[in-house]
Amino acid sequence: MALEIIGAGFGRTGTDSLREALAVLGFGPCHHMHEIRDHPEKAGPWHDYFCDGAPLDLDLLFDGYRSQVDWPGAHLWRESAERYPNAKVILSVRDPEGWYASYSKTIKVFRETEIPPEAPHMRQIQEFVDVFLGDRFDSEERAIKDFEAHVAEVKSVIPANRLLVYELGSGWEPLCEFLGVSVPEQTYPHTNATTDFQKHNIELQR
Questions:
Q1: d(CA 152, CA 173)
Q2: Pairing with 92, which of 101, 103, 130, 153 sits 20 to 30 Å away (CA)?
Q3: pLDDT over 70 for what percent of the chain?
C-alpha cells in the first residue's frame, strides 16, 4: 500500500485531529507518532533508521498505511514525496508562538522524561526523537525560526497543485476540497490537546 497523503507539518500543529479527520474521510489507516506509541513493535524500525544507521525503507516504515501525519514521518516529507509521487502533501501549520508553547509543554517534556524499564519502546521513541530534533528547539527564538524555515521550504519544494497548507482550526472545508471528497456531517475532530499529552506523560512515569 503506497501512501496517498503525506503530512509535512511539525508535531503540535493539530496532527492527531488531522489523523482522525483523514480516517473519517476514508484515508486511513493514518500513521502518526501515536501509532508507534501504542504499538511497541512499530518502534524498532524507526529506531534502527534514526539511531543505528539502517537503510531508509519507507515502504517498511509506512507498511499498511494510506496516509501519514506528525513526526517522525513528517521529518521524512521530502523523501516520501519523492518515493510516492502521486501522493498529496498536507502542511499543517499554526501560529509559531502558539506552536512553541504547545511543544514546550508536551514533546519537550517527554524528551526530558525518565522512561521506566517496563516501557523500552518508549525509550526507543525518545532516542530517535532526540536524533531528528537534536538541539533545534533549545530556545524559543531558534525554534520559531526553524518552524518558519520549514514551512517556507515545503512551500518552495512541493508544487502548489500538490500541496495544502492547512491552518489549525480550519475545519473540513479546505481539507475536503483539496482531497476531492464531500464534507462530513460530523464535527471536525479535536484530539490530543496539551492536557491529554501531559496526562500520558504523567502515566508513563508511574
A1: 23
A2: 130
A3: 93
Per-residue pLDDT, 199: 56
Pairs from 185-193 (Cβ < 8 Å, separation ≥ 24): 186/24, 188/17, 188/21, 189/17, 189/20, 189/21, 189/24, 190/17, 191/16, 191/17, 191/19, 191/20, 192/15, 192/16, 192/17, 192/34
Contacts of 199 (CB under 8 A, 6+ apart): none
Kindly tell me if the per-residue pLDDT of 92 is higher than 70. Answer: yes
Which stretches within the chain are classed as H helix?
15-24, 33-38, 43-52, 58-61, 77-83, 96-105, 107-111, 120-133, 140-157, 172-179, 194-205
pTM: 0.93
Domains of the chain, earliest start first = 5-205 (3.40.50.300)
Residue 204 grid coordinates: 508513563
Residue with grid cell 482550526, as numbered in its chain: 169
DSSP class of residue 41 equals: G
Q: Tens digit of pLDDT for each residue in 155-181?
A: 999 999 999 999 999 999 999 999 999
Name residues whose C-beta falls within 8 Å of residue 7's C-beta, 6 or more positions apart in sequence.
Answer: 15, 18, 67, 68, 69, 70, 73, 74, 77, 89, 90, 91, 92
**Closest CA relative to residue 111, chosen from 204, 2, 10, 18:** 204
Helix, coil or strand: residue 108? helix
